């Protein structure tokens, strides 16, 4: 089972916090814990922090992808379902979101939003492997709110 990993956007200091980087550590029942490591404790933290989950995927640079990241994706388009002949490449930029029972990339299109499922992804850095999706983290919705897809 995958370990749950969380990061948080500190709304007051405008920084992304991993573990206890903003010195928000506290003691609870004699146990040392940081705000990010203690997301179920609901007091003032809710108004100061926006929490995001690690989705279990790393990008082509081996960076962990979190909810709210803005990513660029490239994938092969095949002529038919045999996947023997490549017709071209599709490239898009979107926001990592939870949508209808799974992680997706939400892409802003002319008529609304298109969701790309991350269910069966094979992410490598080998651009010659046709069974590969190439995902690169560009930013996140907190440091670049103009790139946010889901309001």
UniProtKB/TrEMBL annotation:
<dbReference type="Pfam" id="PF09643">
    <property type="entry name" value="YopX"/>
</dbReference>
<feature type="domain" description="YopX protein">
    <location>
        <begin position="7"/>
        <end position="146"/>
    </location>
</feature>
<protein>
    <recommendedName>
        <fullName>YopX protein domain-containing protein</fullName>
    </recommendedName>
</protein>
<dbReference type="InterPro" id="IPR019096">
    <property type="entry name" value="YopX_protein"/>
</dbReference>
<dbReference type="InterPro" id="IPR023385">
    <property type="entry name" value="YopX-like_C"/>
</dbReference>
